């Protein structure tokens, strides 16, 4: 099939590459010329394992091309995926839908044949309905077009596998024709057994927002338990392991620590709160406000514990920060808990040295102030405290005995509960973590 993918950010670039890999003829569209040039040359504009291979293979075969022209997109296909961002509005908790609306406004008058527009971006429930009215008002006479919603559940770091082998496909369509077209697009995946949930657009929009809210709730629940553990001497890691054995609960997304960040979970629960208020059901989801607060509190708790370990002040102390991205296997620092902690410690006059395997360039652009070290041992040199803030695999492979000779004082705060405290203590380190006994 021929299709376009409009918006080639994180979601769109991965979707375009994966759809081409399924065998479709794909045209990726973006207003950012630099991004389009990189993608057309087979280069991923961000760090994502496996994406570069897919881009190279499919741009070489000619199945995947890129353009900045919406006119070319309208001429190329009758099926258009919309993958532009829906960030938090600067003035409120709500999602900013201006990019999605701009795509509909720009595309509608260019369509000359009956078309299907498929939204993949995360949007407030009810968006398909209002966008459909917007689209209809801008079509040429005699042309019909429909909007369906097909949310995406990919995780950064696993984006390619999540797109090609998702847990489920969710499609909200108002006609059997649209549903049928999308079943054809995803046919190779359906043949390999991927579950398909066909529903109405409102339910499809809500599945995405509810899934991210549930994941955020799981994380804040275990972080609340970590606070209780700190007050009572219990151990949150053993607690999570024991809870996780119950298959109704499950161990995944139950790792206590610095909490969630990134471009999705925080803004999605806030946008959900805002939309629920508009729908006059704010009270029903008001617990999400608490989920957000618990999450923000973990950053403060980490800073407070770090200050305590340094004897009550950061001034003049050297602090090594391990990890700057919002999670491992990503170079993304959007709403990164690690960087938020680093910023507070910089502001408190510590001499901060940050290491991250992939996120240094983005971190440097987002937070000037700390020294950024490409070498983890150099980041730890003469440190009074090592702060483990993003659980990259390579940090678990560090040799605590060797590092103890490099630092000024062997003190570790593991804010991700991912390092082995017994091994570090055996090498002479004072180790603290969130929700674990000292
Ligand atoms: C999240 C969802 O997991 C995806 O399903 C969804 O498609 C995506 O948002 C989106 O809406 O686009 P992502 O933001 O890539 O994916 O990251 P996650 O792997 O979900 O991690 C989110 C945050 O939670 C990270 O900061 C991570 O460190 C934190 N986390 C995760 C915890 O603190 N504890 C855990 O047990 C798990």
UniProtKB/TrEMBL annotation:
Top EC class, one word: oxidoreductase
SUPFAM superfamilies in the cross-refs: 6-phosphogluconate dehydrogenase C-terminal domain-like (SSF48179), NAD(P)-binding Rossmann-fold domains (SSF51735), UDP-glucose/GDP-mannose dehydrogenase C-terminal domain (SSF52413)
Any one GO MF annotation of this record: UDP-glucose 6-dehydrogenase activity
EC number(s) stated in the UniProt entry for this protein: 1.1.1.22
Pathway assignment: Nucleotide-sugar biosynthesis; UDP-alpha-D-glucuronate biosynthesis; UDP-alpha-D-glucuronate from UDP-alpha-D-glucose: step 1/1
Residues binding substrate, per UniProt: 153-156, 208, 253-257, 261, 327
Similarity section: Belongs to the UDP-glucose/GDP-mannose dehydrogenase family.
PANTHER family associated with the record: UDP-GLUCOSE 6-DEHYDROGENASE TUAD
This protein's name: UDP-glucose 6-dehydrogenase
Organism of derivation: Streptomyces resistomycificus
């Amino acid at each position: 099939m021929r299709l376009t993918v409009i918006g080639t950010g994180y979601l769109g670039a991965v979707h375009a590459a994966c759809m081409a890999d399924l065998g479709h003829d794909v045209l990726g569209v973006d207003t950012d010329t630099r991004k389009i040039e990189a993608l057309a040359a087979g280069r991923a504009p961000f760090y994502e394992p496996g994406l570069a291979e897919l881009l190279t293979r499919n741009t070489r075969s000619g199945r995947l091309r890129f353009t900045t022209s919406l006119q070319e997109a309208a001429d190329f296909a009758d099926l258009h995926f919309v993958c532009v961002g829906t960030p938090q509005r600067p003035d409120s908790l709500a999602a900013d839908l201006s990019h999605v609306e701009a795509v509909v406004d720009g595309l509608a008058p260019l369509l000359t044949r009956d078309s299907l527009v498929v939204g993949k971006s995360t949007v407030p429930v009810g968006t398909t309905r209002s966008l459909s009215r917007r689209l209809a008002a801008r079509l040429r006479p005699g042309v019909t077009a429909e909007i369906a919603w097909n949310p995406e559940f990919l995780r950064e770091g696993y984006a390619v596998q999540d797109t090609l082998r998702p847990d489920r496909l969710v499609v909200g369509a108002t006609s059997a024709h649209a549903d049928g077209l999308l079943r054809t697009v995803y046919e190779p995946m359906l043949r390999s057994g991927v579950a398909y949930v066909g529903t109405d657009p409102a339910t499809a929009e809500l599945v995405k927002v509810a899934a991210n809210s549930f994941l955020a709730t799981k994380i804040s629940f275990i972080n609340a338990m970590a606070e209780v553990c700190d007050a009572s001497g219990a151990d949150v890691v053993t607690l999570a392991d024991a809870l996780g054995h119950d298959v109704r609960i499950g161990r995944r997304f139950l790792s206590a620590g610095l909490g969630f960040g990134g471009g999705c979970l925080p803004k999605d629960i806030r946008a959900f709160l805002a939309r629920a208020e508009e729908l006059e059901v704010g009270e029903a989801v008001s617990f999400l406000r608490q989920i957000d607060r618990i999450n923000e509190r973990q950053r403060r708790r980490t800073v407070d514990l770090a200050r305590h370990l340094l004897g009550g002040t950061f001034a003049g102390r050297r602090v090594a920060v391990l990890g700057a991205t919002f999670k491992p296997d990503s170079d993304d620092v959007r709403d990164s808990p690690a960087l938020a902690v680093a910023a507070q410690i910089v502001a408190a006059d510590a001499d901060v040295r940050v290491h991250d395997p992939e996120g240094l360039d983005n971190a440097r652009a987002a937070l000037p102030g700390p020294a950024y070290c490409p070498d983890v041992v150099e980041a730890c040199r003469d440190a009074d405290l090592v702060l483990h803030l993003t659980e990259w695999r390579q940090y678990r492979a560090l040799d605590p005995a060797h590092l103890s000779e490099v630092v000024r004082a062997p003190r570790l705060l593991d804010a991700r509960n991912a390092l082995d405290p017994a091994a570090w203590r055996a090498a002479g380190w004072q180790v603290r973590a969130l929700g674990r006994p000292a």
